[in-house]
Each structure stands twice: as structure tokens, then as C-alpha cells.
Design a protein that fits this description.
The chain is about 75% helix and about 0% strand. The protein contains 4 helices and no strands.
């Protein structure tokens, strides 16, 4: 999933799924990196950036 998102980053739901997977696996640092990568992909889209931050907060991703 991470490789697909790096190739085509305009998939907010995919980024949320990746953050969720990383948190489930106890990989908090990788979940936080996924959030940063997602926010970079949507830096010009305020609504999607908010959605990503809200999802990350709900999932407990560090650094939200």
C-alpha cells in the first residue's frame, strides 16, 4: 500500500488506511511519517488535510 501511495499520492482514504495499519502493527513512527507524506500530497487541499488530521487524531497517530 505504501508503494502505491508513493506512486499515486492523491488517495486520502489510502493514506488513512496506511496510518490505521501502521498503528495496528505498533509502528507509530511509520504512521506519523504516513501522515506527513499524506499532508504533503494534499498541501493545497485544506479540506482533505483536515480530514487526514482528524483521522490521524482518532487513530492516535503521534504528532497530529
Amino acid at each position: 500500500l505504501e508503494a502505491k501511495l508513493k506512486a499515486n499520492p492523491n488517495n486520502a482514504q489510502g493514506w488513512i488506511m496506511l496510518m490505521r495499519s501502521r498503528m495496528q502493527l505498533g509502528e507509530q513512527r511509520k504512521a506519523s511519517q504516513a501522515l506527513q507524506d499524506a499532508l504533503a500530497a494534499f498541501r493545497n487541499d485544506g479540506a482533505t488535510s483536515r480530514q487526514l488530521r482528524e483521522a490521524a487524531a482518532t487513530l492516535g497517530v503521534p504528532g497530529v
